[in-house]
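Supplementary Methods. Inverse-folding protocol.

Structures were first reduced to a discrete structure-token string of length 182. This string, shown here, constituted the complete conditioning input.
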């Protein structure tokens, strides 16, 4: 029994270490981008339609969506359009690395709206596909939702947008994912 408890404890510790290894704060990401670290690619992984309504930061090097919106299919249960994984995500990340003279061992930091639905999964997916130093911005661009009170449900805490980091409601046509420029 003691061996089983020890094994479970070690497993939980390694999961916690993995979360620390793969997650990075918005502030640390900003500092590293400002320092113009050479071996770094900062990627916004949101669908450009979401960026259009939520906001954007010119600190990202590129926008490569991890999940795309299929506006021809409706998800009745969730009340939203269906999302599907970008089939070219890995190839597009490789192309962005090559464009900058970077290799697969470069640090790739992904950012979505909250960090949990596309940020962390996209970083894990990149790690599974040969990019061992992929990470994600904890709490993403917009941050976590407030749990209680008059502003419950609003994303008004932490994340890029709520940390006083530079952002805008305007998209950069040179950085945002565009089908007419692919």
């Amino acid at each position: 029994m003691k061996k089983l408890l020890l094994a479970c404890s070690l497993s939980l510790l390694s999961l916690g270490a993995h979360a620390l290894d793969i997650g990075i704060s918005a502030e640390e990401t900003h500092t590293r981008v400002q320092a113009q670290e050479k071996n770094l690619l900062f990627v916004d992984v949101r669908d450009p339609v979401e960026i259009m309504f939520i906001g954007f930061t010119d600190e990202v090097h590129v926008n490569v969506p991890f999940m795309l919106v299929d506006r021809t299919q409706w998800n009745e249960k969730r009340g939203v359009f269906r999302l599907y994984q970008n089939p070219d995500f890995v190839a597009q990340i490789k192309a962005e690395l090559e464009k900058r003279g970077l290799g697969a061992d470069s640090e790739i930091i992904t950012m979505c709206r909250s960090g949990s639905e596309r940020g962390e999964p996209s970083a894990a997916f990149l790690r599974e596909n040969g990019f061992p130093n992929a990470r994600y911005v904890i709490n993403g661009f917009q941050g976590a939702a407030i749990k209680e009170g008059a502003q419950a449900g609003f994303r008004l805490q932490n994340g890029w947008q709520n940390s006083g980091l530079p952002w805008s409601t305007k998209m950069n046509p040179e950085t945002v994912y565009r089908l007419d420029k692919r």
